[in-house]
Write a structure and sequence with these properties.
Blueprint lengths: L11 E3 L14 E15 L5 E15 L4 E4 L5 E6 L1 E10 L4 E2 L1 E3 L5 E4 L8 E10 L4 E10 L6 E6 L6 E2 L5 E6 L4 H8 L2 E6 L5 E4 L5 E5 L9 E6 L5 E3 L2 E3 L3 E7 L3 E6 L4 E6 L2 E7 L10 E6 L2 E9 L1 H4 L5 E9 L6 E4 L17 E3 L1 H8 L7 E5 L3 E2 L13 H4 L13
Parallel strand pairs: 4-11, 12-20, 13-21, 22-30, 25-31, 28-29
Antiparallel strand pairs: 1-12, 2-3, 3-5, 5-9, 6-7, 6-10, 8-9, 10-11, 12-14, 14-17, 15-18, 16-17, 18-21, 19-20, 22-23, 23-24, 25-30, 26-27, 27-28
Organism: Paractinoplanes ovalisporus
Pathway: Cell wall biogenesis; peptidoglycan biosynthesis
Keywords: Acyltransferase, Cell shape, Cell wall biogenesis/degradation, Peptidoglycan synthesis, Signal, Transferase
Length: 412
């Protein structure tokens, strides 16, 4: 059955953070870090070559520029060092309280662990060590901007201490959507780590209202996923700023896949690589076909009501439904359908949902997790990208085209 009534889904509201503002070149804090030596050839009195040491300057530049005001609260401490590396960064507020954070993997900046406070003065100290062991310390201070008037709201569909299916994508939602020109800056503030380590890429829907994160394959069972959407105070375009930071750490459970074939009118359930159950189904009839594609369980309701009278008028219906599992935003579900048991395995009579018997519906409901994959094939309708959590419905080569940042060659 299809219904247009969208069930309420819990969503963590978050926001993007602003990038560190930089001053003009002549305002940047620059210091010689020390010197490194490189051999250079010269000649002795008898004409024999002699190796001497030539000094090579090592420089450090940091941002925001000293005295900078109106800095977004998403500010990063930018670092540029030649001939050495940054070995320590300290950031303190006006009271001298340290702010925790860490360097980016590429070493280009230091990111506070949370958004800074508005209308506050901060002081940063950066220590760099030259290749020859010499060190230098450089400081800067800046003042953050006040609270912005316009914000971009965001939602993270991942929650602490929850267990999800192997196809659970990291889903971040933006309202209003992020325009193409602003997506790269936002994407740089979306962080995911997995244990055990697995590769992944962010990809945007065409509207910019959602960004997904997934790997080339489903997550390994037992994986821990840690996510930080560090967009609080981040400029998101159109004079808007992210509303707040949000993060979550969750687990991936066992592998549990549901595969629905219109030709056979059956669902095959595969757990940890082994077929554990098959069951007859009835899919959408000709006028309301089910969508074919790779979907995931987005929501589970043991009991709910489908009400389509607002959109379908006299053709609408109000029906009590048990063991409903949402697959799309438009209203495609797996659910108990006692009225179609005689048709299940034989013909399609639903309004687009996957009908199963009450006993099979309960069996599935008791075993599934949010994020379990559901593949439907052979129907007369193609799943629309973005109609649900749909990143797995694209091939990897197509999926990564949605990234706003260059994709590493190793992942292409």
């Amino acid at each position: 059955m299809r219904r247009t009534l969208v069930a309420v889904m819990a969503m963590a509201v978050i926001t993007p953070v602003a990038l560190a503002a930089c001053g003009k070149d002549d305002q940047k804090a620059t210091a010689w870090v020390g010197t490194s030596t490189a051999p250079t050839a010269s000649a002795s009195a008898d004409g024999e070559p002699v190796t001497e040491s030539a000094t090579v300057p090592v420089s450090l530049t940091i941002t925001p520029a000293a005295g900078k005001t109106g800095v977004p609260v998403s500010a990063e401490i930018g670092v540029k060092v030649a001939g050495g590396k940054v070995t320590d960064v300290t950031l303190k507020d006006a009271k001298g309280t340290p702010v925790s954070g860490k360097l980016r993997d590429d070493g280009t900046s230091w990111i506070p662990a949370k958004s800074l406070s508005p209308n506050q003065k901060y002081a940063a100290t950066v220590v760099a060590t030259a290749d020859n062991g010499q060190t230098t310390t450089q400081t800067t201070s800046f003042t953050t901007m006040g609270k912005p008037g316009k914000k971009t709201g965001t939602g993270l569909y991942l929650f602490d201490d929850r267990t999800y299916g192997v196809a659970m994508p990291v889903v971040v939602e933006f309202s209003p959507g992020i325009k193409k020109a602003d997506r790269a800056a936002v994407q740089r503030r979306l962080f995911v780590s997995t244990s055990p380590a697995q590769p992944g890429v962010w990809s945007w829907t065409s509207s910019g209202t959602q960004a997904y994160y997934r790997g080339p394959e489903f997550w390994k069972p037992g994986t821990t996923i840690a996510v930080r959407v560090a967009v609080g105070g981040l400029p998101t375009g159109g004079g808007r700023y992210g509303d707040r930071d949000r993060s979550a750490t969750a687990k991936i459970g066992r592998s549990f896949e549901m595969k629905v074939d219109n030709a056979s009118k059956k669902m095959t359930v595969v757990q940890d690589g082994k077929t554990v159950k098959t069951m007859p189904v009835s899919l959408g009839k000709k006028g309301t076909p089910s969508s074919s594609g790779v979907m995931v369980v987005m929501e589970k309701k043991e009991a709910t009501v489908f009400d389509t009278t607002d959109t379908d008028g006299d053709d609408g219906y109000v029906t009590d439904i048990e063991f409903a599992q949402r697959l799309t935003w438009s209203g495609q579900y797996i659910h108990s359908a006692p009225w179609s048991v005689g048709d299940q395995g034989r013909r399609n009579v639903s309004h687009g949902c996957v009908n199963v018997s009450p006993s099979n519906a309960r069996w599935l409901f008791d075993r599934t997790l949010i994020g379990d994959p559901v593949t439907v094939k052979g129907t007369g309708d193609k799943l629309s990208y973005g109609n649900g959590w749909t990143p797995w419905d694209l091939s990897w080569s197509e999926y990564i085209k949605g990234s706003a940042l260059p994709v590493p060659a190793s992942l292409k």
